[in-house]
Amino acid sequence: MNNLRRTSAFSLIELLVVIAVIAMLLAILMPSLKKAKMIAKQMVSSSNMRQVGIAIGLYADDNKGLFPETTHTVTSDKSWIYTLGPYLSEVDKVRICPADPKGKERLFNNTTSYIVNEYMTTYYMFGTLVSSESFHNLYKLRSVTDAITVFVAADRWSPTDTNADHAHSRGWFDSAVQDERWTAIRTDIQVDRYRTGSSNEDNTRGTTLFLYGDTRVEPIKAIKIKEMSDNNKNFAKPM
Hints:
alpha+beta; two-stranded antiparallel ribbon
């Protein structure tokens, strides 16, 4: 009996080996699990933006092709995302990106994880309503398939700033200096929102999402956006 008990029990070495194997398996699986989780968040965000794109189209149909306005011309409670409310099933869910680290704060403070391309909206400059080079009518765009309407908001935007509903894309390419253009872009949009691991210094490790005028949502690698910035290609301006 004593011999049977001794042979059926785990030794300390065997237990340590089992623990080591489990630890190794977890080390192998954890990156994959993190990646899968981020992919799921990106898919939800893509769905959110797709719904926004459809809502923009419906709003334009009811308003002679015009895009909803931003805080350039209206108060924050009438910002574009809330103007689209009647065309969205649940605006509070749609306006928050699940990968946004400030998502809960934005939800509480009535702000959004997504910002409109400034080219798509009317705005005031020095007290004057600017209409030249404005692309704020969906029906008048040369190509809705190439016109980016909405970006993913940068972490740099304060979650309490209710005026932070649009990118300052008209000014991204004002500078002739590469680094200044890239800084201006990253100040407005989170080019590496969907990534695993920490962000690198120039935010080129990861992906973001662009919403186009035809309601298409495309994942765009941050390194590709930087290449366009370095080459002085104004991707934000409709053709």
